[in-house]
Amino acid sequence: MDIGIERIGFYTPNSYIDIVELAKARGQEPDKFTIGIGQDKQAVPAIYEDAVTMAAESADQILDDSNKKDIGLVIVGTESSVDESKASALFLMDLLDLPENVRAFEIKEACYGATAGLQMAYNFVSTNPGKKALVVASDIARYGINTPGEVTQGAGSVAMLISSTPQILKLENKSAYMSRNVGDFWRPTFSKTAFARGKFSNQIYIEFFETLWKRYQKEFDVTADDFKAMLYHIPYTKMGTKAMRTLEGKISDEKYAQLQAEYKYSIQYGREVGNLYTGSLYLGLLSYLINSAVTPGDELLLFSYGSGAVGELYSAKVCENFKQYIHVKNVQSLLNNRKKISISEYESIFSQSVRDGESVDPSVVTGEFYLSEIKENERLYKTKQ
Ligand code: COA
């Protein structure tokens, strides 16, 4: 039985900042941010947006009355949770009008959460072939104003419908994974911004990739030549390049050059929105499928990494007519119709939040779903009429 991604949706907030303007405001060389880090723009979420509203936005694009009734599992992968107890997935029940006969919950493991959800969805569909699973990655990457991590912030979500009728990508159930207790990145419950040992994190990311790639080749008897592209978790687009460099000299120069060329297609959208945390790998996948010349039957290798740390390397095969099932125009218009805001506007938004007893004026909302108020410390969401 084939199992994989039947539909994929993407959302990013309507406002962004220009990375060159950020560099100038922070007294940095613009080339450091655009070349050294590899970013062009950074999404800035509005105060009425969070992991729930963004998850609803991307999931809404891929759901209809017909596929909703077959959903048996709803997983939100996020490290930007809005509640220490209640799962983000439950807020989606009303916002997306989902049937009650589902298991709905949240998974947290830094940027690995969506991959954990995807693998769980694979297992769910393999034992329930008539059912579908909704897996949504949704995050706001926040390090803080004037921190080294600031240039690697971003926001957005990617939703995937997993079923036994994949139209976009077949998951092959070939995977190598590892976990280790590492202090490279963390966000204590009291803090809205993450703490990172950035360079240490880069080192662990690369080490995990090298270890898993060795293990994957041995276990599944493959070489780099078996893959059209290698897609990476991209907290910033230079990161994947660094992991890929470990292949230089170990594979043919021709294959290395080809993988580097393919990687560029996978980072086009990441350069435009910044870090999606757990959605980053999957935005890279979407970017690759839309912008490259990949063809049905091509094999892709995906590297997922979540600080803390969990890594997973797995393969997937591109489906026939995959492009027909991706809302290419929606993705492009979402990215092209955003509003650039100044660095001081971004700094002001960064410090604001909706507090208990406050409500949001719906006329300022640009998307479909929003945090409408906080009442008795409960977050209440609405769909824009
Ligand atoms: N032109 C071109 N490149 C330049 C440059 C210039 N003028 N000035 C610096 N650079 C390059 C550096 O050589 C470096 O490249 P390299 O990494 O290939 O060596 C890169 O820009 C970054 O410079 P660096 O001095 O290392 O930046 P930094 O100390 O500000 O830190 C991060 C960068 C990524 C470590 C920091 O943004 C961070 O901690 N981000 C959070 C990342 C994280 O932890 N994510 C979670 C893990 S997945």
UniProtKB/TrEMBL annotation:
Residue ranges constituting the Hydroxymethylglutaryl-coenzyme A synthase C-terminal domain according to the UniProt record: 261-352
Q: InterPro entries from the entry? A: HMG_CoA_synt_C_dom, HMG_CoA_synth_N, HMG_CoA_synthase_prok, Thiolase-like
Record's SUPFAM superfamilies? Thiolase-like
Q: Report if keyword Repeat is assigned.
A: no
Q: Single Gene Ontology BP term?
A: acetyl-CoA metabolic process
Give an example GO molecular function.
hydroxymethylglutaryl-CoA synthase activity
List residues of the Hydroxymethylglutaryl-coenzyme A synthase N-terminal domain: 2-163
Q: Does the keyword section mention Chloroplast?
A: no
| Residues that, per the record, bind (3S)-3-hydroxy-3-methylglutaryl-CoA | 143, 242, 275
Active site annotation, chain numbering: 79 (proton donor/acceptor), 111 (acyl-thioester intermediate), 233 (proton donor/acceptor)
Q: Which terms are listed as keywords in the entry? A: Transferase
Family listed: Belongs to the thiolase-like superfamily. HMG-CoA synthase family.
Under which name does UniProt file this protein?
Hydroxymethylglutaryl-CoA synthase
> From what organism does this protein derive?
Companilactobacillus ginsenosidimutans
